[in-house]
Structure formats: C-alpha cells, structure tokens
Protein: VIT family protein
Amino acid sequence: MPIHKKAIRSTGWKTDFLIGFPDGLFLLFFTTLLVQALQLSVQRFYDLNLWVSLAGTVLVMVTAWKANRGDAQHDEATLSPKEEKKLQRLDITEDTIRHIAQEMEADAGRWEQALQQENVQMTTWHPLRALRSAVVAGGSFLLGALIPFWPYLANENFNAAARLSSLLVFLSATVFALIKSRATGQRTWPVIARYLLLTAGIWLAVYLVRQAIS
Structure:
C-alpha cells in the first residue's frame, strides 16, 4: 500500500483503548473461570492464563498494526487491471465491466462525501503512528486482562478469587460501557445493559460447561 494513500485509521488512544480493553477483560474472565474446572495445579493455572494474556496481547497489537496499514486491494476506489482481467476470464462483457468500474467510482465518491459530512479524519500511513496504536491497543488488552486475573494472583483460594474476579468484571464492564457511550455518543443505558448481558452470558456459559464436565 503506498504511504501517501489516505484512509480511515486509528483516531487516537481512545479508539485503541475501546478496542483492546474489553477483549482482555472478557477473554481472561472466560479462561480463568473455565480453567478452574480442569483442576490444574496453581502454577499450571497461572502459566496457562499468563500465556493466554501474552498471546492475546500480541494478536491485538498485530491486528492494530495491520488495521492502520490498510489493505491496498480493498482501499482501491477503481477497478484495477488485475481485477479487470479476472472479470474478462469469466466471460463478462466489456459493457458490464465498464458498468462495474463506473459504479465503483460512484460508490467511492459517495463514501468520500459521507466521510466529509461526518467529519471523519482521513490520514496517511505512518509506521510510528501505527506502532503507537498497536502499543496502546496491546496495553489496553493487558489492562483489561489483569482485572479478572489479579484476584487469583492475590489469593490462591480460587473459589474466593472467582467471586471477587466476577464482581470486578461486572463493575469494570459497567464503567467501560459508560466510557464507551460517552466517547461514541451512544445512549448510556443500552450500552451498559449490552455489556452486562455479555458478562452474564460468559459467566453462564462457563457455569454450564463446568456442570457438564464435573
């Protein structure tokens, strides 16, 4: 992808936080509750969840980097010669191919106009900006992951730790939903309700799995 190509990219640390934090929060909430049912040693429990946290962080950072870099194939507003040749091999007529190209250009124009009306910022690719986005997203993931994991690190009585962890996750989901609703301009209560239902759904799913294998 050419570095001068403009596209929608991360709009700053708030966007990266909103992406990374809930992934870490809910993933470790799920794994810490589920791994308890496997009756592993304390050290094995810690190791497994630590590796999940690190792997998730790397995955989020790579995803954020790639999202900022963009995809030249999908960023093109016009029909490329390579795509045109593919259509020709499908025995599509020249008139149809020209019509497709015209529609692509028209869609690109409408999309650009919509972005201007919504004041969406279009920025060029820059490796330092992408690196910052990846680091913030990865750090936000780790922060979210620490919330459900910390009670287990502080207390090897995993039943008590699970109760505290669940309480912290429900509180964190509520606070995060409030922050997200303010940042995105959405109505507060529907966002809070959605995240609380998601948290409850994770807890219920793990509970049913543990009942099935116990």
Observations:
- Residues 76-123 form one domain.
- Residues 6-10 have pLDDT under 50 and may be disordered.
- The two ends are 52 Å apart (CA to CA).
- The chain has two domains: 6-70+125-213, 76-123.
